[in-house]
Amino acid sequence: MKPDVHPSYNEIQVTCSCGNTFTTQSTMKKALHIEVCAACHPFYTGKQKIVDTAGRVEKFNQKYGAMRKSA
Question: Which sites bind Zn(2+) (predicted)?
Answer without folding.
Answer: 16, 18, 37, 40
